[in-house]
Amino acid sequence: DISDFTVEVDGRKYETDYESWCNSFGEPLTAPYKLRKVIANKEFSSSFHWENGFLLDESETVVIDSERRNIMEIPQGITVIGHFAFMMHDFKKLKLPDSLLTIGRYAFSDSVDPDFTEVFIPDSVKTIGKSAFCGCDLEKVHLPAHLESIPRGCFNYNWLLSIEFPLTLKHIGDEAFGGSEFEEIVLPEGVEDIGYNVFEGRDLHITLPSTLKEIAKDFYYEVCVDDPESCLPFIEVHPDNPYFYAENGTLYKRDDASSPYLGYTYPKPKIRSNPKLVKIKNHEKSIQIIRPFGFG
């Protein structure tokens, strides 16, 4: 994390410390696009340099971007994208280099554009920070082949319809895929724990592996848990799992089979429609983006 220098735009200084980059709602703000000057403590001033419009530190971590781009192409050779580096940068396409190893937390969060619907994360990436792609309205994501953990909120508030998990995956954090309307999820052998509010989608069919040790009772979107007749998933468990099993789509713990861990006996009742609809008048088609929490 960088906390020892400020940026200056038109005579106004902006602290890069996270605490000072928070608005009254406690949400991080982005750096100004027309970044002109970096003011650092003398001992740190040689630690940063510009390259193709990107501010890099001495470890070649992308700290921030100073330009508005339609195509966000990170240069080859970059191994780390820093925390918040491209937050709320609305580009149409993202190209990540094969040299990339780490994507910081909130690195691309709330980067929304009607044309930015897909991201290919190269297989070189080993670590992705929490909420790195939160609120991007993505429809398709390619996960790196050697990824072991999908952190909290990583792809929250997107519109994914399907996902293929790497065989190396072990951990799925809270709210990792909230908002995506999956129809089927097959978790690979090796997955050990799943957090809360990870998945969403009506009539979802989910298959849990034999390696699963922990799963939050509300691993499915909490509204569905509160109203179980509406949209609880149909669950299957690998027969060799020593901790869980399933009957008729209902999940049970082996050490407490007296009541369901999650679910209810199928067949499911007919899903009720929601009569409350929100209509938006889009005069002259001027509305292009509705950000997360737009009606919250």
Please render the helix and strand layout as text.
Layout: E1 5-9, E2 12-15, E3 37-40, E4 48-51, E5 54-57, E6 61-65, E7 71-73, E8 80-81, E9 93-95, E10 102-103, E11 118-120, E12 127-128, E13 140-142, E14 149-150, E15 171-172, E16 184-186, E17 193-194, E18 205-208, E19 214-215, H1 222-226, H2 228-231, E20 234-237, E21 244-247, E22 250-253
Parallel strand pairs: 6-8, 7-9, 8-10, 10-12, 11-13, 14-15, 15-17, 16-18, 17-19, 18-20
Antiparallel strand pairs: 1-2, 1-3, 4-5, 5-6, 21-22
Give the ordered list of helices and strands: EEEEEEEEEEEEEEEEEEEHHEEE
Helix content: under 10%
Tell me, what's the shape? elongated
Distance between the termini: 31 Å
Q: Gyration radius, to the nearest Å?
A: 22 Å
Counting DSSP H or I runs of 4 or more residues, the number of helices is: 2
Low-pLDDT windows of residues: 1-5, 13-45, 264-277
* DSSP summary, beta strand count: 22
- Overall pLDDT metric: 76
Strand order, biggest sheet?
4-5-6-8-10-12
